[in-house]
């Protein structure tokens, strides 16, 4: 019997996975505030006797741009180290390769609309991107691999990461040395996917996720009474023109054979219906694959926003920040995952992924070492579990938790003992 054949998801472990995921889901914590989740993970690692370090990483955004520029753009920064991240280490029977396995822990600022026994108990916070499942799966992986540590060579590092949702927590953990001592040779991660049915996974090599940049446009006008708009310069109207004009960059300035996304997710201005405010703020994201397209869009956003504002007697301050890079899966690591999943689930339950415009800060890890992030199917149409991530009704079929542990452990052991 091979070591991979020894992977067993017992009924007790399966029940624990479901219970743990529900607890984390009911108690979501936003980026860089994952204190209780980190405490839960640390307690589990202690019970297993796995040595680990807490207080790893923190706010990675100052590694992406000058803190003064970030603060001027309205970002409220936190310490870059001493945060809620954890790094655990499982040593095998003999020296060998070092594999990093990562899970993110943070929730999103969303009000949950599901009516389930395990819905969020915190108003304005929800695990709408499946990080509760990611954390739970990695805790299960820790238990299984720790029980098999006399069956593999090398070292496994478990990266429990804060701040994936916009705070570049992976980058902060890298700067805290998680890829060193011993040096990491390769890395694995998973992400839930509600377009893949539960019981299956998706994987592919190459660039699978886009560059995810952040933009902010602040329009400065002249406030006044809503009944006398001619005495004011309405920043709301100016912002509307800027928003529409920026949408046309993709449709009219980008080669149709290339691709890009320009999306505004927040528009804020004003306090009352009969007051023209003095300013308005638009916040959005730009997703690209090609560097030349990224360069063009960054330049044109500034030119168009300032030009439209000036033509309407206003001014526009534009901030464009290069944020998460594109995520690229290594060919060898992707094949290891595919083979492991095929062996455990069957070829019919392994799909080939297509590139997506989603962003992911595991990309910072993939820039440093050969990596693979695969997709864990969590959809169940018969139960109505089909809502997209970042939707207030997102949910997942908890049968996927055991599948995630099984495939991740199989891929890890296949890599370490290859």
Short description:
This protein has helices at about 10-25, 35-50, 65-70, 130-145, 170-175, 235-255, 290-310, 330-345, 365, 400-415; strands at about 50-55, 85-90, 100-105, 155-160, 185-195, 200-205, 205-210, 210-220, 225, 260-270, 275, 280-290, 315-325, 325-330, 350, 370-380. It folds into two domains: about 5-210 and about 325-415, 3-Layer(aba) Sandwich (Aminopeptidase), CATH 3.40.630.10; about 210-325, 2-Layer Sandwich (Alpha-Beta Plaits), CATH 3.30.70.360.
- The domain count comes to 2
Overall pLDDT level:
97
Which structural class is indicated by helix and strand composition? alpha/beta
Please bin the fraction of helical residues.
25-40%
Number of strands: 16
* Distance N to C terminus: 16 Å
Order of helices and strands: HHEHEEHEHEEEEEHEEEHEEHEHEH
What's the total helix number?
Answer: 10
Envelope shape: elongated
| Sheet with most strands: strand arrangement | 1-2-4-3-5-16-6-15
Top CATH class of the largest domain: Alpha Beta
Rounded to an integer in angstroms, the radius of gyration calculated over CA atoms is 23 Å
Binned strand content: 15-25%
Main sheet properties: 8 strands, mixed
CATH architecture annotation of the largest domain: 3-Layer(aba) Sandwich
Poorly predicted runs of 5 or more residues? none
Tell me the CATH superfamily of the largest domain.
Zn peptidases
